[in-house]
Amino acid sequence: MKKLSPIAIQNKSDFFNQIIENTKYFTQFVIFALNHHDIILYADNTQTPTVMMIYDNPACILYGDITDADVSEFIAKIPEHTYIVGQHPSWNPILKSHLPNINIYPRNLFDASTLSKDHLVQMMTKLPEGYEIRQINTVTIPNDQMIQEDLLNRFFDKSDFVHSGFGFGLYYNNDMIGFIATNYPVVSDEAEVYVRVDYNSQPIHRHKGFGLQLSIYFLLECFKRGYVPIWDSANDISAQLALKLGFVLKEAWEMFYFE
Question: How large is the C-alpha radius of gyration of the chain?
Fold first, then answer.
């Protein structure tokens, strides 16, 4: 078994194309990190790397087929309190055996090619009295604390959301109680979906079909703008919603969290 040692790469931009080409999961996070942050990059070779690791708090992304390789020195570079994504399946058993305090989070990545505009329109329903879905714009953003805290302050600190993303808010008596939006600035023809209803501490508006209606608005806007929506579910509720909307399961995969 060949032992591979991580080398810190200084000219990181030289490898960006290779990184993007080999990214199947968390694609928008990776593109966001490469474009907006000074990532940490390790590779087994400075010229033609076969194994790479990028770190951008709070995630570590691992690349390459390590079937017959000793990558213990790479794994030793992973900080605690980090989400870990292996872009090749050979990483998963190694991570499970080498990291004692690791949590496993099953995820489901969906295919959007089966979405139908007619199907989405047929599922639209009138909201109960007092509720309204509005497009998020420069007028609403300053007053919408939920989206400020949960999305804009994290991923749109260097980008204007109105020009680099889009979304819709769910309002009850003019207060935002949910939203659906692009999770990261849009830089290609893909838009990753992020939907939430209510705060976890007071989920009184959940399980009433609002997530479905928000999703319909967002997906119809994707059709209008020519974007391919990325739906990567982290729980069964999200996965069932994707299927109801017309997505089909593309691949089940695992994300990890190293405590």
Answer: 20
